Amino acid sequence: MAPRPRSVLRPVPRPAPPRAAWGARRLGLPALFLLLTLGACGGTPGPLDGTWTLRGPDTLGQVQATRGGGCQDGAVRVQLYGATLATAGEVPAEAVEEEPGLVWLHFPIQTALGEGQAAMRLQGNEAMLPLGARRGELEVRLERGAGPVAAAELDQARQASTASLAQAATAWEQGTFRLLDDQGGLVGEVVLREQAAPLVAVYDATWWTGGLVEADREDQGPDIVLTFPVEPALQGETGQLRVNVPAAVAVVPTDRLPTELDRSLRLVSGVVTPQERDAAMDRARQAADQAEAQAMVGLGRQLARRAHSPDGSCRSWTEVAPDLAPVLAGYDVDIVAEGPDCVVEVEPTTLQHRRRFRARIGPEGRRDEP
């Protein structure tokens, strides 16, 4: 948090009102001094009082708070040590009570790219630390227990966090990352360059860049948002990755706000060799082609069966299933009569990822199999 600017207002001396002089004579100067001293003393009580332990899979921390009152303000101090973020020892925190039993703590935090400002929610037996720029995304949840952490345990966590952060800082300084899916498979790359546009490559059954391409970069708090050309692009769509520094994760968003359809890819420091890239791209293309063929054959069989008219002709797919327009975008689809059957002829409008399938499909399946 930036320091608050000092006030430029300066006190202007002015004569004391007559009643003040009367009071001084009536009460005596020692009594007046005592009253003024007592009247000027008024601390601001805080919403917390106690000591708590914070525990998570890779994180250990402690919160110490005094409520204050009288001549003393409330105070909160936080220690937090994780693999990708940590406080610089014990740091002061600003406590804001949103509602009874729900308090937000604001304090400085160290990440691989330097210092930032953390906001952590304390409620019941849980502490929640949101790491993403979008609300509800990448939330770290910690168990909150009464009492302090043993000094030796806290020191061990601090040392481990310091070493991990140093390693992460080196990785971000190099700026070259592999993108891995949930199974650890290589599905892309990110190269962050200091004096040039970032480079991105993605290759799995869902999307494809065909190699490294330049991306537009926008920094949004802890997120680095990368936007780049991608296939399939049926209506001029672009691809996007939300690279989160504290979590070392790249989120593939499906909407402006987080949804259950969003995917998360792990960022692992390292260079992708040309041989690795070629092999991963081959796997991605085969997986996409197989999924596309399976889906389109099933859809074509349904259309071939439903396209029959009572007079023996075949209706177009827009008459049979106009709701399939989003699914069939990027394809030229015709339904023609062939003997007693209707046959669906499919081919891509523009050849691209997930739009490579072409076939003639009857009620029983493909009619152009070798």
What does the model show?
The protein is α+β, with helices and mostly antiparallel strands and 370 residues long. It has 3 domains: 50-165; 176-272; 285-366, no CATH class. Helix content is 24%, strand content 36%. It contains 6 helices and 22 strands. A hairpin with an 8-residue loop joins strand 15 (223-229) and strand 16 (238-244). Helix 1 crosses helix 2 (29-40). The chain is elongated, with a radius of gyration of 32 Å. The chain starts with 17 loop residues before the first helix and ends with a strand.
Properties at a glance:
370 residues, alpha+beta, 3 domains, eight-stranded antiparallel beta barrel, 6 helices, 22 strands, elongated
Tell me the span between the first and last alpha carbons. 68 Å
The shape, in one word, is elongated
What topology, given as strand order, has the largest sheet?
Answer: 13-12-11-10-18-17-16-15-14
Give the count of structural domains: 3
SSE order: HHEEEEEEEEEHEEEEEEEEEHHHEEEE
Topology, number of strands? 22
Regions with little confidence, pLDDT below 50 for 5+ residues: 1-38
- Quick check: average pLDDT? 88
Q: Percent of residues in beta strands?
A: 35-45%
Please tell me how large the radius of gyration is. 32 Å
Find the structural class using helix and strand composition. alpha+beta
- Mind describing the biggest β-sheet? 9 strands, antiparallel
Number of helices: 6
